[in-house]
Amino acid sequence: MLTLFYIGLLVCCFLCLYRIGRGPSAPDRTVAIDILGIVIVGFCALLALETGKDFYLNIAMAWALLSFIGTIALAKFLEGRSFDE
Amino acid sequence: MSDVIGYILIIIGILFDIFGCIGLVRFPDVYNRLQASTKCVTLGTIMLLVGVAIISGIGPTASRAIICAVFILITSPTAAHAIAKGAYASGVELWEGTVVDKYAEHVEEGESQA
Domain count of chain B? Predict the structure, then answer.
């Protein structure tokens, strides 16, 4: 059962990686990086469920935070602004 | 009983994740891809986290999973909005089948008023 869940999330990860590698413009890649971060949060939750160790959810929270900050930074870079505007 | 509900939630969440990522690959435009993938993957991951919380019962795992779900619920639309605005400002072309572009009209109105 859990193996099927992992395979489903791995399919998501590979589709995101396809879009990151292939994407014709920079915003395509930014969208795919954002989605990949959220999928990895789900992956950490499944690991916590399988092993019964709850520090995987700490990793998930930190990953969600860093992914959000990175996405905001990339969006600001795309918009051509600096951070203090 | 709670195990069954949790596993059903996890299965539905992973299906939403897969459909969102298929939309990320198949749609023709940055804005279409953003629209499809962000909403589907946000809902799917939140359902997965809630399913993990229900299976593990009251305790540290469930509380952290709920905190993570609320955090994703807040940050994911914010990031999507920022990416859409950044993509429009960096001059990405809309798909040729696009019917309406309200944001361009809004920008023109703002410039004419200023």
Answer: 1
Q: Judge whether B76 is closer than 8 Å to chain A, CB to CB.
A: yes
Interface A-B, measured as beta-carbon pairs within 8 A, has a size of 149
Residue of B nearest to A70 (CA): B79
Specify the number of domains making up chain A. Answer: 1
Closest CA to A16 of A1, A28, A7, A27: A28
Decide: A27 and A71 in contact? Cβ < 8 Å: no
The pTM for the full model equals 0.88
* Most B CBs within 10 Å, among A6, A12, A55, A83, to test the B interface: A12
Instruction: Identify the DSSP state of B110.
Output: H
> Over the stretch A25-84, which tens digit does the pLDDT of each residue have?
888 999 999 999 999 999 999 999 999 888 999 999 999 999 999 999 999 888 876 666
Residue in the structure block whose two tokens are 């900050």: A69
Model pLDDT for residues B72-107, shown as the tens digit of each residue: 999 999 999 999 988 888 877 788 888 888 887 888
Shortest distance between the Cα of B48 and any Cα of chain A, in A, equals 7
Cβ pair B48:A45 closer than 8 A: yes
Nearest CB among B24, B52, B87 relative to A49 is that of B52
CA distance A37 to A84: 26
Q: What is the ipTM of this complex?
A: 0.88
